[in-house]
Design brief:
Layout (H helix, E strand, L loop, with lengths): L3 E3 L6 E8 L9 H6 L2 H5 L1 E5 H10 L2 H7 L3 H6 L1 H10 L10
Antiparallel strand pairs: 1-2, 2-3
Length: 97
Amino acid sequence: MAEYGHCALCGREAKLTFHHLIPRTLHRNKWFKKQYTRQQMSSGIDVCRECHAAVHRIADHKQLGREYFTRERLLEHPELAKFITWVRKKRVRNHGR
């Protein structure tokens, strides 16, 4: 069951989902195994659904794992930064709370 809290990207209080900073589909890839520790591979951030969807729209899994593997790097992506500025002004739409 998802927990409520503040999104690590937009800061809004919402139901959160866990975003793996290095996508799980890459955890068996030899290049990623050589580059990152197990702890780094399993690290992630709690984000709202809107931000999570936006992250996966801006880049494919390999790009996320190679270039946007920290919260700070995600926030530096121009498209995501623009989205976050926009979404911060929007009301959170969580059903069942």
